[in-house]
């Protein structure tokens, strides 16, 4: 990696920080995970932070994710040559510089105005694959234009409208995405108490729907809706829907406008949008098609018709579901409970990992997502058998604190800590991190 020298990225980051400290300069982005979250809270509105940081119900699943890492201890091994450490892995036919991915985070504009584009730039700078969110604040075309040839995947939330799903997948292919990650645990929205207490759902305000408002199929659905409403109004003697301009409508129009110049719903700029029924109709259309609670295993066959890209299923926690996924011919799994955002009291992702891996038997890569707060956590997940590890909320907090530089700092710190943990544990490559690297906590 560009940040590392012969000493490894861990020592390089330490040296940079401590040298700056001689001049009285401390890191702008806190290194400690608790301090990082605290800084993100200060940098965002109360509603935004509640959405980014919150989980389902009493947030017992979020606590369980962290407790699962605490149940394992790392065995240090000494007097081994760890002067050079190799963090690279093989994943989906490519050699990756590190075992990290940036997991998809929706509505990134709540953290920073540059949203997904800032994350994309940071991921590209560190050569870490970025899983573009289905619920992005910037269109996939805008984000990938910022990333150049850097690695990116696309997360698909399976809509109730298959033509729209296909359009998303085709666009992802055209944008150079290397894989499609189908998130399976959002067919219903979790009971998120922080958001409910704030009466705040960003999608209802036009935030986090840029993939939709930039899509030609979705635009047709919106126009059809407006036409039906207008026809109904004309039949009743009314002039058709004329939205009253409210603060919420203004926010919606601005969010849709920021989706990018490609948006087929923006003709004539924000002023025209405010006078148009399209922004409100776009939100209502999104809420209609967002999820499909009737989705079953048989529906996955459609995805193979839409794309030749590798397909990973995200949200697989039970070994029986892992076996069914293999029978469906998928190319990888992501063991994830959505960071504790969907079910309160669910099994921790790290606790679910071993049984899934046993059922998979090494036939496809398995990514661990949820609860990772640093490089030592990643070491434990890799030791238990994960192929790669997803970073989620921490990089969103970094985005809130310092934009693209904040994301880069957080991800670099994860990589640096993993590098040093490997060396201190006597492992010089990811391949050497095995189950014998861990002991169960008393």
TrEMBL record:
Pfam families: FMN_dh (PF01070). Residues 25-442 form the FMN hydroxy acid dehydrogenase domain. This is Lactate 2-monooxygenase. Belongs to the FMN-dependent alpha-hydroxy acid dehydrogenase family. Keywords: Oxidoreductase. Its cofactor is FMN.
